[in-house]
Every structure is written in C-alpha cells, then in structure tokens.
C-alpha cells in the first residue's frame, strides 16, 4: 500500500482529527449491504479479511450477522484506527496494524469498503490484492456526478475524508477489470438517503429517490448520493 497521500495523513493522526468517530455510525448499514450481497449468491466464506478496516466496526457487525464458524481479520496501518478497532477484538475477530500486501495469508473473502479511492497508486494496490482471496467485495463512492461537480464536492471529499480519486460507475468497473478482476455482481447503495440523519438532509434526498426509481444510472450520474457495491473474483 502506498505510504503517501491520505495513508500518510492517517498515520499522522489527521484522519482521526477530521473524523473522530471514524464513521462507525455508518458501519451497521455497510455490513447489511455486504450480507445482502453474500446472500444473493449463497456465499458462505469461513475466513474474511478487511483491508483498511478503520475502527473495525464493519467486521464487528458482521461477526453477529454471519454464522459462528467465520473468522475475521482487520488490517490497517493507522495507529489510531487499530487502537479503536482492538476494543472490539474477541474470539474469531482480530485486528492487525500491518501492511496487508505483505501478509502471506489467504482468505475466502476480502473486503475493501470505501478504501482504494484513498490510495495514491490505487491500480497497483488493486493488482496486488487480487490473489489474496477467491472473492472480493468493494464499496466504492461515486463522487463524479453532475451535481457534485457543480458544487465542487470532490474537493470537499478530498479535504474531509481524503479521497484522492473520484469515480463513476463506469470508471470504477473499468479500473477493476483493468486490474484483472472478474465482476460477478454489483448494485447501487443509497448512501446519502439511507444514512441521512437530519430533516434537511432527508428532504434533499427526495428528488434523488424519485429519479432513481425512474432510471437508476441517470439519477446517479446527475444527482449523485450513491455508492457501488461490487462482488468480484
């Protein structure tokens, strides 16, 4: 994994300063999306790793959602992240402050949830991760949309959550395919509407929902507010 860009900032504590909860409040929702994808394909992995696990709450949620014979390992190079994550450790759930690319271990399923947009050499990173597991699940923010560009939201995402790269559905899929991944399935996740916590934010999602019901791809590219969940091999 690149040691520059946003990764460097995480090591220096800047990410925790800008995001003190490390987004753990979004983790139950993200875990449900992962569980849905697994159920859609009747996948029952016995070993699951998450690279860039942050505070570790996604794995912690999956621990209670999936069968009791599953083992979980979270990887992150941030001292702050692993300090938070290790509060969640228990039997079958561990967190390691290691560079995932250097581990010799193999897993049934690898999770990269809102991760590779933070990595400077994201193509090299994706290629290096490919043979670490049979299946991979990616959650990819779709920052490139008409409304977002007009409101300069990609730069806001760069400053607040450290996104270095910005994707549409098409460029996200192309990046994975170019790195040798086989796309098994994908679907949009309504991150903006499902995670809205204020009345103003909920009202703002109404046009998105209406447009999404008419034409999903058009709604996402025009109005944004969605991410992409991808199952790949």
């Amino acid at each position: 994994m690149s040691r520059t860009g946003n990764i460097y900032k995480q090591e220096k504590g800047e990410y925790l300063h800008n995001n003190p909860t490390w987004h753990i409040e979004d983790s139950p929702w993200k875990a449900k999306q992962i569980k849905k994808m697994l159920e859609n394909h009747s996948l029952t992995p016995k070993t699951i790793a998450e690279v860039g696990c942050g505070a570790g709450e996604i794995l912690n949620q999956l621990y209670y959602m999936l069968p009791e014979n599953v083992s979980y390992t979270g990887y992150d190079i941030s001292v702050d992240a692993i300090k938070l994550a290790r509060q969640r450790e228990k039997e079958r759930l561990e967190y390691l402050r290691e560079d995932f690319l250097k581990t010799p271990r193999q897993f049934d399923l690898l999770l990269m949830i809102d991760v590779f947009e933070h990595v400077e050499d994201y193509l090299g990173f994706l290629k290096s991760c490919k043979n670490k597991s049979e299946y991979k699940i990616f959650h990819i923010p779709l920052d490139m949309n008409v409304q977002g560009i007009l409101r300069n939201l990609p730069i806001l995402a760069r400053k607040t959550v450290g996104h270095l790269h910005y994707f549409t559905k098409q460029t996200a899929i192309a990046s994975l395919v170019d790195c040798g991944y086989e796309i098994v399935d994908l679907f949009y996740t309504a991150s903006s509407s499902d995670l809205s916590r204020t009345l103003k934010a909920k009202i703002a999602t109404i046009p998105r929902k209406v447009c999404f019901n008419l034409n999903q791809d058009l709604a996402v590219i025009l109005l944004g507010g969605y991410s992409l969940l991808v199952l790949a091999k």
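Residues 6-192+226-232 form a domain with the Rossmann fold fold (CATH 3.40.50.150). Residues 27-40 form the longest helix (14 residues).
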